[in-house]
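Just scan this pair:

***
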Amino acid sequence: MKAAVWQGKRDVQVTEVPDPAVKEPTDAVIRITSSGLCGSDLHLYEVLTPMMTPGDILGHEPMGVIEEVGTKVQGLKAGDRVVVPFQIACGSCFMCDQGLQTQCETTQVREQGMGAPLFGYTKLYGAVPGAQAEYLRVPQAQYGPVKIPEGPADDRFLFLSDVLPTAWQAVEYADVPKDGTLAVIGLGPIGDMACRIALHRGARKVIGIDLVPERLARTRARGVEVLDVTEHDDIGAAVRELTDGRGTDAVIDAVGMEAHGNVAGKVAQSVGGMLPGKLAEKALAKAGVDRLAAFQHAIDIVRRGGTISLSGLYGGAADPLPMMTLFDKQIQLRMGQANVKRWVPDILPLLTDEDVLGVDDFATHHLPLAQAPEAYEMFQKKADGAVKVVFKP
């Protein structure tokens, strides 16, 4: 089959790789019909390269049709249409029972000290072959895949794999009070969708913060008040002007480690990428690759006693945290990978009738898998208005 594989820093190629097969009784193999390109894939493209191996198949947002199932997979059969969560969890351990599928005790990548494995995402998370391919082996298929109805186009359900539950959890963790206010830093796919979900769930005011004109325009069109960081010397002051001088009740940081504005963090990222093998892995794991500009803004923006919800990916500790400010402002922090199956029952009803969250036209680009190298470059450069790219194998 054809797949998008990582061959080096900023080097994605579409090549022939072996077809996947059922190896365990709890496996399934699906034929991919749509696969998303995620902002966190760009971390592999640029920052987390020491954790990658040439030939790794990328992608963790799959949707498709069941081709084959193992003997212990009940309720699914060949021909069923499914969307697959980006993490691999068993559904029956202590952590899964708590709704913490990202911490699944059956599948944890213990040799790396990490939680549940992810499709197409570095040796830290199990180096599981990813979904930007024609076919995908799905471990723990007795639990993971979500069966969806025939009929609507893939985009109606594809984002259940990652974008929708990640944004939903970000809003849930933000704990916006009834008729409260929320600021969302970063209006890529997760930040954009978090704004939509927050408004749907009753937030009185949502302020979206970014620097890319197309992202600002598309979020404004959904009823969000937007701020362009290039037009404000003090983004915290600009938010306080819109919130009675207080700041928002909650802030979602949907940016993470690749935030603009911290030169030291950029140097750490670059040096980590230049070191050889194990040295680079150690540098990234211990020294860190984070550029905390977005998080620093979140601390400034949130009101005293408010909540910061981190959904952007952080990978280390390049910058010190302002612990005195966090303590003095009595800020609550919540964070973590999205527990996809926990939120599916809340989200699925919003997709089966009216398109209240605008998922049908959420993607800005639909491209054949063969154009994956160009798509990664376009998405990284935020060219051609690219906010969300979907591959069609």
Notes: Residues 16 and 63 are 20 Å apart (CA to CA).
